[in-house]
Design goal:
The complex is a heterodimer of chains A (about 550) and B (about 350). Helices cover about 60% and strands about 5% of the residues of chain A. Chain A has about 550 residues and is mainly α. Chain A has a two-stranded antiparallel sheet. In chain A, strands 2-3 form a two-stranded antiparallel sheet. The longest helix of chain A has about 40 residues. Chain A is globular and about 90 Å long. Chain B has about 350 residues and is α+β, with helices and mostly antiparallel strands. In chain B, the strands form 4 sheets. Chain B has a 5-stranded antiparallel β-sheet with strand order 4-5-6-7-12. Chain B is extended. The chains are: A mainly alpha (about 550), B alpha+beta (about 350). At the A-B interface, helix 6, helix 8, helix 9, strand 5 and helix 11 of A face helix 3, strand 3 and helix 7 of B. Strand 5 of chain A pairs antiparallel with strand 3 of chain B, so a sheet runs across the interface.
C-alpha cells in the first residue's frame, strides 16, 4: 500500500527530504546495509532485560551532568578562605576544590540539582550494574558466545567503582578525605612497593597538594573514556549476538522472538531513558546526597563518626573492618596482613565473578552456543554459588556499616564485628546449601506439574467417600516450557588404558573436572526432568491421581 | 470500557494462529514445541475509539512535559537561590533545587511515559521471530582466513629472518620503558619522611582549639585534648601534611592507673600524649571513654587502651599508638622531649 501512496509523489518531482539525506549518507557511509540488519532487529521482551538499560542511561546522565560540573569545579588543592554565601563556613580555610563545590551548591542556580543528579545517577549506575550482573549470572546468559561480553560488563562494574571513588573524593571534604586516607593506608600495606606507590600517587606525603588534580583527570577522562569504549563494545556485542530469551512456545536456540527495534523498542527504550532521567531528577529534587557543607573541608586530624563510603565501596570497607589486625615484623620489615589481606580479598572476591563463566564451561565441556536462558532452579549448583557470593558480599557490606548496625539496633560493635568475622565464612556455606535445596525442590515441583498436572484446589469426593484433589493437565505450551532445558550428565574419567592397551595417566585436572562435574550434575545435584515415556505411562490409562 | 461497546465489525473473527508453526503433541513427543501462541488483540487493535483515547493520553503526557519545562524556566528565573522552604516530610530544603528538580523530573518523565504508552497501546505488539546464525564462520571461510594469514606471514618472512624478528621484539619491549621513566617525577622517594614528625625536643604542645600552649593543669581527668606542635599554623603551606603525622591527643590519668611502665616514664604527672593518627589506616582517633580510658577510631573501630601503652584491644589495627615523651619547660608549659620513637600512622613495608 505504501508503494501506491508514494508513486504519485515521486512522479511529481524529488523524493522526500529525509529520503534524499539518507541516500546521501548511504553513498558515503553505507548506512543502508547497517540499517537492513538492525532497523527491524528483533528484541525479546522481559522485565529483567531492562536492568542493563538502566545502567546505560544512568551512565549517559552521569556524562551529561559531569560535563556541566566541570564548567564550575576547580580541581585544585590550593588553600583559600571561603567568602561564599554559606554562612557557617565563611572565613574558613579550605581547598579550592571544596570552595568551588560550595559555589556549585549554593551560588550556581541549579548547580546543586546537577550535582545531586550526578551523584544519585552514579549510585544507581553501580546498583544497576550489580543487579544486571546478577540477572545475567543466574540465568546463565554469560555462556558461550557471551563470555567476552560478561568480561566487558565486569570491567565496567569494577571501573565504575573506581570512577565513583575518584569522583566523590574530588570535593576534598572531610568524609571523602577520610576515604582517601584509608586508600593511602591500604596502598602503604602493599609489601615492598606500597610506600613508593603512595608517594607517586600523592606526589609525596599524604595528603600532599596533588591528589585532587590527579583524581580529576582519572575521574573525568581516563576511566570514563575506557568505560565509554567498553560500553559501546558491550552494546555492539549485544546486537551481534542477538539478545537471549527465556524458553517458551515458539522460542528456540536458533531464533529470537520479540518485537522490532523500529518502532517498538525505539519508543520503549528511548522513552525509558527519559523515565530514568526523570526519576533521578525527581530524587535529586527531594533527597539530599553528599551535603559536603555539613561535613566541612578535609583535615587529616579531624573525622566525623559514622563515616561511610558510597554503597559500592562498602564491601571493601567491610573487609578492612572485620579483618583482625595481623602484623608480622621481620628483618626490619613489616608485613601488614591486617590491611593487605583485605586488599587481596577485594580483588579475589571480584575476580571470582570474572572467571566463573570459564570455570563452568570447563566443567561442562560444552562447546555449543546458548541463547535460551536458564531458569535459576535448573542450574542448582550455579545458583547456589551465586547466592553464596551475594551472601558473602552482603555480609561484608554489613561489616562495612558495623558502627551503624551497632548504633541503630543498640548492639555491641564487637558483637557485630564478630558476627561478620564468622559469617563471612559460614554465611556463604549456609546460603549455598539452602539455595541448592530450594532449587532442587522447585525442580521436583516442576516435574510433578508436568507429570501430574496443576493442583487446582478443587476437592472432589468420590462415590466411595474418598476425597481427592483435581489435577489439571498442563497445556502443551507449559509442558514444552518446563521440559525444554538441557540437563548435563556428569563427566566421567575416560578409559584408563589407551588404544594400545597401555595404562594411561589420569591428569589431576581431569580428576578435578570429574569431581566438579558430579557436584554440578551428579545424582543428588539435579532432578532428572520428566521424559516423554514417563509422561505417556502416567497419562495413559491410569487417569488422574 | 466494556466489550459491549466495541462495534461488531471490529471484533476479531477468530483467534487465528497467524504465525509460527503450530506443532502438535504427537504420540512420539508429548512435549513438542507448539509454536508461537496466537496474537492476543488489545482493545486499541479492535476499537478505534480506544485507540484515539490512547492517543489523547500520549498527547496529554507530552503536553504536561512542555508545561513542566516552562515551569523549570520560570522557577529558574523567579526563585531566589538562597530561599529555603519547608516540605513535609523532608524538612527545610532549598526551594530552587526542589522546584527545578521536580519540574525537570516531570518534564523528562512525561516524555518517557508518553513514548512507552504509545509503544504499548498503539504500536504493533505482534511478536516476530528472527533466525539466529551461528557466530562461528563456515569451514571454507575459516580455511581461507588461515591460508591468507599464512601467506601474509610467509611474505613478511618474520619466521625466517630471526634477526629482524628478535630485534623488533626487543625494540618494542624496551620503548615503553620511556613511558615508565616519565612517571618517576610523580613524587619524591619516601626516604625516611614517614619516620619523622615536627615534634622535637623543647617543642611546646599547643591546644588545637584555642591555639594556646598547654600547661599540665589545663588537662583535667576525663577529657580528651588535641594538640599540635608550636609554630605550625593553619596558613602554612605544609600544614595538612604535617598535621597528618603530628596530630596529638592528650589525656590525664591517675599515675597509679597507668599499667605500662614506659608509658608512666614518658608521662608528666599522669598526663600522657599519644599520636592521634590510627595505626590501622590513618584515621584520626576521636572517641574517648572516660571510665575505661579506651579510645576508639570512628572509621574502623580499632580500640586502644590508653592506660596500658595504647595497646590494641579490639579491631583491625595492628599495633599500639605511638606515645610522645613529654615534660614541662621552665615556664611550666608542656613540651615534647623528642620526636616519636617509631613512625606514626598506618604500618608500611619499611616500618620494621
Amino acid at each position: 500500500m505504501s508503494t501506491a501512496a508514494n508513486e504519485p509523489a515521486r512522479s511529481r518531482g524529488k523524493a522526500p527530504a529525509g529520503e534524499r539525506i539518507a541516500d546521501w549518507a548511504d553513498g558515503r557511509l553505507g548506512i543502508y546495509s547497517l540499517a537492513k540488519a538492525n532497523m527491524r532487529k528483533i528484541f525479546p521482551d522481559h522485565w529483567s532485560f531492562m536492568l542493563g538499560e538502566v545502567c546505560m542511561y544512568s551512565f549517559i546522565i552521569i556524562i551529561l551532568t559531569g560535563v556541566y560540573l566541570t564548567l564550575f569545579f576547580h580541581p585544585s588543592m590550593n588553600e583559600v578562605v571561603y567568602h561564599g554565601s554559606y554562612v557557617p563556613l565563611q572565613g574558613q580555610m579550605m581547598s579550592e576544590a571544596f570552595n568551588s563545590t560550595l559555589h556549585i551548591s549554593f551560588d550556581v542556580r541549579g548547580g546543586l540539582l546537577v550535582r545531586q543528579i550526578h551523584h544519585w545517577a552514579a549510585l544507581i549506575f553501580l546498583a544497576g550494574m550489580f543487579v544486571h550482573m546478577m540477572r545475567v549470572f543466574f540465568t546463565g546468559a554469560f555462556r558461550k558466545p557471551r563470555e567476552i561480553n560478561w568480561l566487558f560488563g565486569f570491567l565496567l562494574f569494577v571501573l565504575g567503582m573506581f570512577t565513583g571513588f575518584t569522583g566523590y573524593s574530588l570535593p576534598d571534604d572531610l568524609l571523602s578525605g577520610t576515604g582517601v586516607r584509608f586508600t593511602e593506608g591500604a596502598i602503604l600495606s602493599m609489601p615492598i612497593v606500597g610506600t613508593y606507590i603512595s608517594y607517586f600517587l600523592f606526589g609525596g606525603q599524604f595528603p600532599g597538594h596533588d591528589f585532587v588534580a590527579r583524581f580529576y583527570s582519572i575521574h573525568i577522562l581516563l576511566l570514563p573514556g575506557i568505560m565509554l569504549g567498553l560500553m559501546v563494545a558491550h552494546l555492539i556485542l549485544v546486537f551481534y549476538h542477538k539478545h537471549t530469551q527465556f524458553a517458551g512456545p515458539g522460542k528456540s536456540n536458533t531464533n529470537v522472538v520479540g518485537m522490532p527495534l523500529l518502532p517498538v523498542y525505539m519508543a520503549k527504550a528511548g522513552g525509558f531513558f527519559f523515565l530514568v532521567f526523570g526519576v533521578i531528577a525527581a530524587i535529586a529534587a527531594v533527597a539530599q546526597i553528599n551535603p559536603i557543607w555539613a561535613m566541612g573541608p578535609y583535615r587529616p586530624d579531624q573525622v566525623s563518626t559514622g563515616a561511610q563510603p558510597d554503597w559500592y565501596m562498602g564491601f571493601a570497607e567491610g573487609l578492612i573492618r572485620f579483618m583482625p589486625g595481623w602484623e608480622i615484623n621481620f628483618w626490619g620489615h613489616t608485613l601488614v596482613l591486617g590491611v593487605f589481606i583485605p586488599l587481596v580479598l577485594f580483588g579475589v572476591v571480584l575476580g571470582a565473578m570474572a572467571v566463573y563463566p570459564f570455570i563452568e564451561s570447563w566443567v561442562t565441556g560444552d562447546k555449543s552456543e546458548h541463547h535460551i536462558l536458564d531458569r535459576p532452579r535448573n542450574a542448582p549448583t550455579r545458583t547456589g554459588l551465586g547466592v553464596a557470593w551475594v551472601t558473602m558480599y552482603m555480609i561484608t557490606l554489613v561489616g562495612g556499616g558495623n558502627d551503624l548496625w551497632a548504633t541503630h539496633f543498640h548492639l555491641s560493635i564487637n558483637a557485630v564485628t564478630w558476627f561478620v568475622r564468622i559469617f563471612f565464612f559460614v554465611g556463604p556455606v549456609i546460603a549455598f546449601i539452602a539455595t541448592k535445596r530450594i532449587c532442587l525442590g522447585l525442580q521436583r515441583r516442576d516435574r510433578d506439574k508436568v507429570l501430574h498436572g496443576r493442583e487446582t484446589g478443587i476437592i472432589k469426593r468420590l462415590p466411595h467417600g474418598e476425597f481427592i484433589e483435581v489435577h489439571e493437565p498442563l497445556s502443551q505450551e507449559q509442558l514444552h516450557t518446563l521440559t525444554t532445558h538441557t540437563q548435563y550428565a556428569p563427566a566421567e574419567i575416560g578409559p584408563l588404558v589407551d588404544e594400545n592397551g597401555v595404562e594411561r595417566k589420569v591428569k589431576a585436572s581431569e580428576k578435578l573436572r570429574v569431581k566438579l562435574s558430579s557436584a554440578y550434575y551428579g545424582e543428588d545435584n539435579q532432578i532428572p526432568k520428566p521424559t516423554s515415556d514417563e509422561y505417556k505411562e502416567i497419562t495413559s490409562g491410569h487417569g488422574h491421581h | 470500557m466494556s466489550s459491549q461497546d466495541i462495534p461488531e465489525e471490529n471484533l476479531p473473527a477468530e483467534q487465528e494462529y497467524a504465525h509460527g508453526a503450530v506443532g502438535v503433541a504427537d504420540e512420539e513427543n508429548p512435549f513438542a514445541d507448539p509454536g508461537l501462541p496466537p496474537h492476543e488483540h488489545r482493545i486499541q487493535d479492535i476499537d478505534e475509539r480506544a485507540a484515539r483515547r490512547s492517543e489523547r493520553v500520549v498527547a496529554l503526557l507530552f503536553t504536561v512535559s512542555m508545561l513542566a519545562t516552562v515551569g523549570f524556566i520560570v522557577s529558574y528565573v523567579t526563585i531566589p537561590h538562597d530561599k529555603n522552604i519547608f516540605v513535609f516530610p523532608i524538612g527545610h530544603i532549598s526551594a530552587l533545587n526542589f522546584a527545578l528538580g521536580l519540574t525537570l523530573g516531570v518534564a523528562l518523565f512525561c516524555i518517557g511515559a508518553g513514548a512507552v504508552h504509545w509503544a504499548r497501546t498503539l504500536m504493533s505488539d505482534v511478536e516476530v521471530a528472527d533466525e539466529r546464525h551461528p557466530i562461528e564462520a563456515a569451514p571454507e571461510i575459516r580455511a581461507k582466513v588461515h591460508a591468507d594469514f599464512r601467506q601474509g606471514a610467509k611474505e613478511s618472512a618474520l619466521g625466517r629472518r630471526k634477526l629482524i624478528r628478535n630485534t623488533m621484539f626487543g625494540a618494542l619491549a624496551l620503548v615503553p620503558l620511556s613511558g615508565v621513566m616519565l612517571l618517576r617525577d610523580l613524587g619524591p622517594l619516601p626516604g625516611t619522611s614517614l619516620r619523622h614528625t615536627l615534634w622535637a625536643k623543647g617543642k611546646r604542645l599547643v591546644n588545637m582549639n584555642t591555639n594556646q600552649p598547654l600547661r599540665p593543669e589545663d588537662i583535667s581527668v576525663g577529657s580528651l585534648t588535641f594538640a599540635k606542635p608550636d609554630g605550625l599554623e593553619e596558613t602554612d603551606e605544609e600544614f595538612q601534611n604535617e598535621m597528618a603525622k603530628a596530630a596529638l591527643m592528650i589525656v590525664r590519668l591517675q599515675p597509679d592507673n597507668i599499667k605500662d611502665k614506659r608509658e608512666l616514664d614518658w608521662s608528666h604527672e599522669g598526663v600522657v600524649a599519644f599520636s592521634k593518627i590510627c595505626t590501622h589506616v590513618g584515621c584520626p582517633i576521636s572517641l574517648y571513654e572516660q571510665q575505661t580510658h579506651h579510645v576508639l577510631c570512628p572509621c574502623h573501630q580499632s580500640t586502644f587502651d590508653l592506660s596500658d601503652g595504647a595497646r590494641v584491644i579490639f579491631g583491625p589495627a595492628g599495633h599500639a599508638l605511638p606515645q610522645l615523651r613529654i615534660g614541662v619547660d621552665s615556664e611550666g608549659y608542656l613540651q615534647a622531649l623528642g620526636d616519636f620513637e617509631e613512625p606514626v600512622g598506618p604500618a608500611f613495608w619499611e616500618r620494621g
